[in-house]
Structure formats: structure tokens, C-alpha cells
């Protein structure tokens, strides 16, 4: 049986990627070949399985889905009722977008773990790491309105509670966002983590440096934050192509 060289296999990988195949697709194909070549080696048909010497292409990280700034405004400004659910939902979503916290971090905030006068909240983050997050003026105003209504139903120390007065769950927050997105005609659907993605992307769009965004998100590694530069570049490219007089694509 003719034996493939590592050079030929690398050429195969490069050709597939040049054809537009994703790294994930090429990796799956190579995994099948690896199993076949391992079988040939066990059967004595080949002396050595060279595919085991190669590293599979690293899969591309998916670009996070997020809302444009005007879409965030549409979503939040739509929640303008004065009933308990509306006041809570507006404060909840304003808080997530203003601070960039994870859903699990947001629902874990207790009364006494934030200061509206100073504009911050104390968070127990991923891996038990503590950090402070900032709250913008709109989130603070929404929280002030909600706190008056919360006092009439709350039976625990949680900041965000349900109609029974107990702490909101992660799942409840997802349902709330899904419902509120459906209420706004034409608004794109995102998962609740998309508000965190929107927070990071809009900071970068506004000129924030990557290291500061990393700290605000509570990322241990800068590489986790770098994925947001892709969405920021996409937006800038779109603006450039639409606005520059000599930017038309051939």
C-alpha cells in the first residue's frame, strides 16, 4: 500500500481550508481518516500511522451573537410598564447590559451587595472570584424604580425575585428575555448571554481597550475577550463599505 507523507496530509488540509471548508469540518474528516489508519496499523497493512503525529486544526470559536446599540434601546425602552414584572424585567436587563455580568452572577446579587449612590455592584464571579461591576445611570434609575416594588413581595435577600418573592433562577431570566424580545416586532433573537456580548462589543466600538474590557467581564484570560474584536471589526467594515466613497467591492 502506498504510504502518505506528512507533507501530503498538510497539503490536503491547506487545500480544504482554501476551498472554504471550516476547521471543524476538516477536523471531523481527519478524525475519520485517523480511525481508518489506526485500523490499518493494527492489521499490519502499514508500519506507522502518521496521522497520529499531526495536530488537528483548532476549531474557530463562534462569533458571539449580539444586538446593535439601537436594538438594545428598542428592547429596553419597550419595557415601560409600572407593574411589578415590568419594573423588575427592565431593571434586570438594564443591569445585565450595563455591567456585562453573567446571568448566574446577576441572579446571585443580594440586597446590600450593591450601591446605587456609588454606581457599583459586588459580584461573586466564575470560579469564586470576587469583583466589582459598574452600573450606568439608566440601570441605576431602573433599579431604584424596581426596589420600591420589590419591597412589597420579597421574602428573601435576593435583589431579583419572582412574583412569589423568591430568588429568580437562570432559567427564569432566559424566559424573561425571550418574552421581551418577542414583544418587539422585527427584533433579532439572542440568548441572554447575548446581552453580555453586546456589552463587550459596544465598549470596544466606543474605544475601550481590550484589557479593560477583560477586567469588566471578569475573564481570567485575555484570549477569552479577544473573540469580541471580531464582531467589532465586522461592524467597522460594514460602516466603511457603506460610507467611504471609494470602498466599493469589486
Automatic annotation (TrEMBL):
Record GO cellular component, one term: cytoplasm
GO molecular function terms attached to this record: DNA binding
CDD domains in UniProt: INT_XerDC_C
Biological process terms in GO annotation: cell division; chromosome segregation; DNA integration; DNA recombination
Residue stretches making up the Tyr recombinase domain: 62-241
Pfam family, one: Phage_integrase
Domain Core-binding (CB): 1-41
UniProt-annotated location(s): Cytoplasm
Alphabetic keyword roster: Cell cycle, Cell division, Chromosome partition, Cytoplasm, DNA integration, DNA recombination, DNA-binding
InterPro entries in alphabetical order: CB, DNA_brk_join_enz, Integrase-like_cat_sf, Integrase_catalytic, Integrase_recombinase_N, Integrase_SAM-like_N, Tyrosine_recombinase_XerCD
Full protein name: Tyrosine recombinase XerC
Gene name of this polypeptide: xerC
Amino acid at each position: 500500500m502506498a504510504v502518505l507523507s506528512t507533507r501530503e496530509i498538510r497539503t490536503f488540509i491547506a487545500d480544504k481550508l482554501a476551498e472554504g471548508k471550516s476547521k471543524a469540518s476538516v477536523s471531523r474528516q481527519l478524525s475519520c481518516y485517523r480511525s481508518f489508519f489506526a485500523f490499518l496499523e493494527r492489521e499490519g497493512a502499514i508500519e506507522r500511522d502518521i496521522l497520529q503525529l499531526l495536530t488537528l486544526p483548532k476549531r474557530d470559536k463562534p462569533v458571539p451573537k449580539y444586538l446593535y446599540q439601537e436594538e438594545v434601546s428598542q428592547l429596553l425602552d419597550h419595557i415601560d410598564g409600572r407593574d411589578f414584572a415590568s419594573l423588575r424585567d427592565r431593571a434586570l436587563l438594564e443591569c445585565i447590559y450595563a455591567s456585562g455580568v453573567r446571568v448566574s452572577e446577576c441572579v446571585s446579587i443580594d440586597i446590600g451587595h450593591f450601591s446605587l449612590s456609588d454606581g457599583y455592584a459586588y459580584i461573586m464571579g466564575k470560579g469564586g472570584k470576587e469583583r466589582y461591576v459598574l452600573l450606568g445611570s439608566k440601570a441605576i434609575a431602573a433599579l431604584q424604580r424596581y426596589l420600591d416594588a420589590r419591597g412589597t413581595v420579597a421574602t428573601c435577600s435576593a435583589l431579583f425575585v419572582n412574583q412569589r418573592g423568591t430568588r429568580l433562577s437562570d432559567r427564569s431570566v432566559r424566559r424573561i428575555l425571550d418574552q421581551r424580545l418577542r414583544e418587539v416586532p422585527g427584533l433579532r433573537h439572542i440568548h441572554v448571554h447575548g446581552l453580555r456580548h453586546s456589552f463587550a462589543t459596544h465598549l470596544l466600538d466606543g474605544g475601550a481597550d481590550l484589557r479593560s474590557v477583560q477586567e469588566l467581564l471578569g475573564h481570567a484570560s485575555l484570549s477569552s475577550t479577544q473573540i469580541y474584536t471580531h464582531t467589532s471589526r465586522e461592524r467597522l467594515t460594514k460602516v466603511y463599505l457603506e460610507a467611504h466613497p471609494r470602498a466599493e467591492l469589486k
